[in-house]
Amino acid sequence: MACHDTTGSYRKFPTACGNPPLADKKCCGKLFKAVDLKKVAQHVGASSRVNCGRCHFYGGGADGVKHGDLDSSLFNPDKKLDVHMDAKGLNYACTKCHVTRAHQISGRKYLQPAPGKHRLALPRDDGNRLMCESCHSRQPHKTRILNAHTARVACQSCHIPRYARGGVYTKVWWDWSTAGKFTPDGKMIAKKDKNGTLIYHTKKGDMRWARDVVPEYRWYNGSMRYYESGRKIPTGTKEVALNTPQGGPGDPAARIFPFKVMRGKQPFDPENRILIVPHLFGKKGSGAYWSDYDWQKAAAGGMKAAGLPFSGRVDFIETAMFWPITHMVAPKEESVACGECHRRDDGRLAGLEGIYLPGRDRSKGLDKAVWILILITAFVILNHAGMRWLIYLKRKNRR
Predict the structure, then answer these.
(1) Domain that holds residue 1
(2) Structural domains in the chain (count)
(3) Is residue 302 assigned to a domain?
(4) What pLDDT digit, counting tens, does each position of 157-207 carry?
(5) pLDDT-based confidence at 13, cuts 50/70/90?
């Protein structure tokens, strides 16, 4: 019913693991009215961007928090924000690309690589329509050089120049180590910036937000390697990747892909060298962090419930999470210009390793060899031109 409700009344309850409130309940200072399941069931229809957006646009607790390329600006976007979802143009629903088979919605999955098949799926639709090539083919451009890019560069890398472009801020930093501060009279602290965005809360610590953000780029074959609870973190690690895009320049299935990278600091056991699973929700005296604000108690309770060892010490370590960027496709006139990647030092692909990128990379030996060839070529051309000129003058004098 979450996917097919047309009444607009179906809502999930924030702490109910995706279930709707069946009685009026309060949470987070708001009243959530009970959902009339009978009414919703009698008014089901085709799913729309509204159905999908109610969950995916607000993932993480607020508008645009998680993905960066999914927020409420896509409910009614113009062509400049997304050429496919343009409300006055193609006006595609999410299901136009995220096709289904027996209610299995195609998308990023844990066991199946996300990009799928790099080939044309239409006009015969085989239910695998997630890739841009499924509709646009492997050669969508008029020039050979641009079409050659599709083998190693994802379409999104050029056609989504920035994410969070609809005016909604997305979270890019979350520091748990600064949580737990109160006013002198014991009240929680909540600070907002000039845009009204929450930048500190007693429960969560410091946060940073951004919009119109240039993605970071990695090789990606559609699979992720996830940090698993209890896995030891090597000594000297400065940033723990909670998920790591798989693939590299030697992987024929991998392409250069754009990502939002969500960074922050999370609780960490420095003796066992593992991330801590804290107990957050609970009544006063239960040891839950959002009740007692004691990291040792929250860590002890959470790690016990998770079946993981805990040394009794709590530290914090920086983490990074990668979110593939696939929405907010800009008009072709606003796609990434060649020089934004093919330049030295500050280009978009400055940190991407494993390839020789013209304009970014250089080899002194190769440069020297090329200049020698240029000089030799210039000498031959000038010599040839000089000889032709002498022959011309000699013939002219004979006449």
Answers:
(1) 1-45
(2) 2
(3) no
(4) 999 999 999 999 999 999 999 999 999 999 999 999 998 999 999 999 999
(5) confident
Q: Name, in order, each residue with C-beta under 8 angstroms of 365's C-beta and a sequence gap of 6 or more.
A: none
In the three-class reduction of DSSP (H, G, I as helix; E, B as strand; rest coil), residue 39 is classed as helix
Q: Is residue 144 part of a domain?
A: yes
Beta strand 170-175 with 255-269: parallel, antiparallel or unpaired? parallel
Q: Which pLDDT score is estimated for 34?
A: 94
Answer yes or no: do 84 and 233 share one domain: yes
Does 7 lie in the same domain as 121? no
Residues 316, 266 contacting (CB under 8 angstroms): yes
Instruction: Clarify whether residues 17 and 147 are in a common domain.
Output: no
Residues 5 and 131 in one domain: no
pLDDT over threshold 70, residue 114:
no
- With beta carbons less than 8 A apart as the criterion, state whether 169 and 212 touch: no
258: left (phi over 0), alpha (psi -120 to 50) or beta: beta
CA-angle at 72, arms to 68 and 74, nearest 5°:
85
Of 251, 169, 173, which is closest to residue 218 (Cα–Cα)? 251
pTM: 0.86
Report d(CA 273, CA 23) in Å as an integer: 44
Among 56, 43, 59, 58, smallest CA distance to 8 is for: 43
Residue 392 lies in a domain: no
Q: Is residue 136 part of a domain?
A: yes
Retrieve residue 293's tokens. Answer: 């604000």
